[in-house]
Amino acid sequence: MIKMQDLKKDFTVRVKAGRFRRLKRTVAAVDGVSLTIERGEMVGYIGPNGAGKSTTLKMLTGVLTPSSGEVSVCGLTPVPQRTRLALRIGVVFGQRSQLWWDLPLRESFELLRHVYRVPAAGHATRLRRCRDLLDLDEFLDTPVRQLSLGQRMRGELTAALLHGPEVLFLDEPTIGLDVVSKQAVRSFLAELGRTGDVTLVLTTHDLADIERLCERLVVIDHGRVVHDGSIEALHARYGSRRSLVADLDRPLPDGFTLDGTTLTSVTANGHRVTFTLDSVTAGVAVAGLVAAVAVRDLSVVEPDIEDVVARLYTER
Ligand SMILES: Nc1ncnc2c1ncn2[C@@H]1O[C@H](COP(=O)(O)OP(=O)(O)OP(=O)(O)O)[C@@H](O)[C@H]1O
Ligand SMILES: [Mg+2]
Predict the structure, then answer these.
(1) Could you tell which of 45, 53, 210 is best to mutate to test the pocket of ligand 1, judged by most ligand atoms within 8 Å of the CB?
(2) Statement: residue 311 has pLDDT above 90
(3) What's the 98 CA to ligand 1 centre distance in angstroms?
(4) What is the pLDDT of residue 171?
(5) How many Å lie between the centroid of ligand 2 and the Cα of residue 79?
(6) Which residue has its alpha carbon closest to ligand 1 atom 5?
(7) Rounded distance from Cα 250 to ligand 1 centre (Å)
(8) pLDDT average, residue stretch 115-121
(9) Is the model's pLDDT at 94 over the cut of 90?
(10) Ligand 1 interacting residues, C-beta cut-off 6 A
(11) How confident is the model over 12-52, as pLDDT tens digits?
(12) Which residue's CA is minimally distant from atom 8 of ligand 1?
């Protein structure tokens, strides 16, 4: 569905050098990305600020011409075949709007139907579905400029989907949304993914989006792919471990150890302790702990994706 081969985008920027001089400098925003994405995949495309995510999406959607390399989406070359491509993809740039500022959402949607020449029946079915899943009805007749960010974003998603695209590109679709709106957007996208006929590429800084939606995670940094695989693969690469958190009646005795684990934190009052499970199963660690001390409560915590991703960003 999507193919990128050694894709690059350079920007020339002028930087100040002394009082009057300006030097030209080249920024390699995307620096040789090669990826293949199959139909129905849901791919999280993440990376630190300035990594080149938005630039990649702009080349995929035909907004920017690559400096070199090859790119194809739905078998089309984005920039020269931009008009044909537009009928087959949906795009949401969280920071920008594709809606008409002064029109109510309802009318924006109707206009889009004409822009894309979508048959009325398909359009109506998709709109009905978006209205239900994204709770649009209460603000369908409000002008876009009066919508809150979360309401507008639900409108943007709908607008991107009304022509029944095969590929959806979302650049930070949950940016600035409250927890409830985020969940609404996520479950909407998950529902969309379940049917398997939409391919999704999503950038985000909220890793919960990725955990909820994407089996494949592509991480870029300085324009290059530094990880491509599942979240589990990332955890495996960094040796992330689960931990055992226990609430105790009284602090651990001095020098206490639990085989196969490392004691990684103790709260100030000593009543809550955390062990990393290095080489034992949770069952063995729990048995060892309850045999040694009085335990009031226990939980096993999965490794935190934020932690591994932070390690990946900082080590580079
Ligand atoms: N139009 C432009 N002119 C010059 N440099 C640009 C332009 N657009 C992007 N860049 C530079 O290219 C690099 C990548 O930018 P890009 O917007 O793709 O990053 P990003 O991964 O989307 O970051 P963020 O998470 O902050 O959105 C940055 O160094 C940025 O300054
Ligand atoms: Mg960006």
Answers:
(1) 53
(2) no
(3) 20
(4) 94
(5) 20
(6) 11
(7) 53
(8) 90
(9) no
(10) 11, 13, 27, 29, 47, 49-55
(11) 988 888 888 888 889 999 999 999 999 999 999 999 999 99
(12) 55
Helical ranges in 65-217 per DSSP H: 82-86, 105-115, 120-134, 149-161, 179-194, 207-213
Tell me the pairing of strands 199-203 and 42-46. Answer: parallel
User: Tell me: the pLDDT tens digits for 161-220?
Assistant: 999 999 999 999 988 888 988 998 899 999 888 888 899 999 999 988 998 899 999 999
**Which residue reads 């709106």 in tokens?**
181
Nearest CA owner, ligand 1 atom 6: 11
Contact 157, 181 (CB under 8 A): no
- CB distance 233 to 214 below 8 Å: no
pTM summary value: 0.86
Only one residue has tokens 């639990």, namely 258
- The Å distance, Cα 129 to ligand 2 centre, comes to 29
Q: Using CA atoms, how far apart are residues 308 and 316, in angstroms rounded to an integer?
A: 13
Strands 68-73 and 89-93: unpaired
- The whole-number pLDDT of residue 186 equals 92
Average pLDDT value over all residues in the chain: 92
User: Residue 283 corresponds to which tokens in the numbers above?
Assistant: 């069952």
Instruction: Identify which of 309, 298, 288 has the alpha carbon closest to the alpha carbon of residue 240.
Output: 309
Rounded Cα distance, 185 and 179, in Å: 10
**What is the amino acid identity at position 262?**
T
